[in-house]
Amino acid sequence: MPQDNPPTTLLSQRAAVVLLLGILAAVAATALTVLAGGALASGLLAGGGAFVAGVAFFNMIIA
């Protein structure tokens, strides 16, 4: 009887948490920028920067 290979995951748990925290930082930065009176384009640019900085930061501190 052949054995099935165990299913492989697409992302590790650590990578998923780091990316999730980066997305949360981006959403918060976008919302705060738009609510402060900035244009949506400015909010999206701030969110993109927050995502990159957040992923770099959380990747460094989560072991």
Keywords:
single chain, 63 residues, mainly alpha, 71% helix
Explain briefly what this protein structure is.
With 63 residues, the chain is mainly α. It is 71% helix and 0% strand. Helix 1 runs antiparallel to helix 2.
Overview of this protein structure:
The chain has 2 helices and no strands. It has 63 residues and is mainly alpha-helical. The relative contact order is 0.17. The model has no long low-confidence stretch (mean pLDDT 94).
What's the SSE blueprint?
Layout: H1 13-35, H2 40-61
Helix pairs in contact: 1-2
Using the alpha-carbon principal axes, give the shape: elongated
Using only CA atoms, what is the Rg?
17 Å
Give the mean pLDDT. 94
Span of the ends, CA to CA? 40 Å
Major sheet attributes: none
